[in-house]
What does this fold into?
Amino acid sequence: MLNPQAIVPEGLSDAQARPAGRRFNVYRNNVAVSLTEAMHQAFPVITKLLGPNNMDGLAGIFLRQNPPSSPLMMHYGEAFPAFLQGMDQLSHLGYLPDIAWLELAIRRSYHAADSSPIAPNALAIDPEQLANATLQFAPAMEVLRSDWPIYDIWAYNSIDGTAKPQSTAQDVLITRPEYDPIPKPLPIGGADWIDALRDRQSIGQAQETAMAAQPEFDLGATLTLLLQGGAITSLTTEG
Amino acid sequence: MNMLDNSNNDNHLPFAAGVGYKPQHFNQILNDAAPVKWLEVHAENYMGDGGRPLAQLRHLSERFPISVHGVGLSIGSEGPLNPDHLARLKHLCDWLNPASFSEHLAWSTHDSHFFNDLLPLPYTDTTLNRICDHIDQVQEVVGRKMLLENPSSYLAFDESTWSEPDFLREVSRRTGCGLLLDVNNVFVSATNLNYSPQAYIDEYPIENVGEIHLGGHDEDEDDHGHPLLIDSHGREVVDPVWALLDYVLERSGPKPVLVEWDTDVPEWPMLQAEATRAQNALHKVPA
It folds into this structure.
């Protein structure tokens, strides 16, 4: 159905019993056009970085290799980062796969289940108790690690007036305070701390894990980002 | 998710104009919906876990009867229906308790690939049995009567032994499903396959119609220079389709009439004007 060179099946005709010819291609064309359009909408920053015409060509190759496996188009393109990674002619744009990951994560966050953040004073408990507590995060929260300044590249191509990207590696936190996912650059070690908490480590253990990975880890800055984004949904203290 | 409390709504589609809901029109619809009395949504856009789409739908369902229109179930597939997708449809309908639920006489899934388009099928005894089995299953799982929509066709199958109206009548008779008559699709198919759209309507089981669709199409040509209309939902409804709507309404009496506009979606006033024209067509019909 997606191969434009394939022959038109037999047994299809127009009203005068002539073979269907290019009438069949209307269907082929509709399928390809709708999927290409879906790719443009799903990856606006990639489209901007490559230009719409290049994106059309790339989407055309991608959608034939990776036709959707589900009618839920909201998640279409999950294989796009790996596809970009495998394109030799794009290897000089090494950050593209991570940008595609970020755009996928923003979409996942947009459609994720709703949740309620903890009360602002929920962390104002005895410090020892706090260190032993565990945290639960909102389904709409996403964390991405990258060797590229992906937040800067994304913001430069999404938000007017953003400064040009710096050449430092950036991890990104996506929160969804209400309905719009908001990406922010994570402080150094923040991703390590959040990952440790998601592995059920306590706040204190997670801090040790993060400091071991990144001695400059800044707990306060990371926590502030999470609280501002409504990303912490509950705190569990040991019995 | 808990079931929504939309019990204040009369839970059926009114015999009035509705529009296909687009999120960019959310605020205008809440501020000035006239003459739109109901809305239709594509089921697949509301199968996420949460966020703005479901919040908006919850909000709209407090004010408007909502029709859930599936585009991805692939009722015409050779293989079994996708049980996960069927479960998602049931989940959405259980939560929303929509005023109507409809799907297409078409297929879009083959070998586990989903093509994001509504593809045609031949009308034979074999496909008839298969379609009826699938619709029985849908109505049983979802727990509601569904409406089945006629497709737009760009070609004919040599093996077809049923006319489309007869095929739809028989599906409706066997399964108890209602029908969604897409007047633009009739016009597009009739032009492409060289028959009279009025003759199609005369043959069509009009008594089973639960809803009418209108939409815009694009004009192209086939290899022989014959007009080839493409069901694009990307512009205004053309005059001959409005005339065909009048022809239908004279025979069916008042029905819920929906204007679809899915690509190159216009600003709200333009869609609203199309809905007004549909409402005016309904006003001409004796109740």
In short: Chain A touches chain B through 42 residues (CB under 8 Å). Chain A has ten helices and six strands. The mean pLDDT of chain A is 91. The beta strands of chain A are 12-13, 134-137, 142-144, 172-175, 182-185, 232-236.
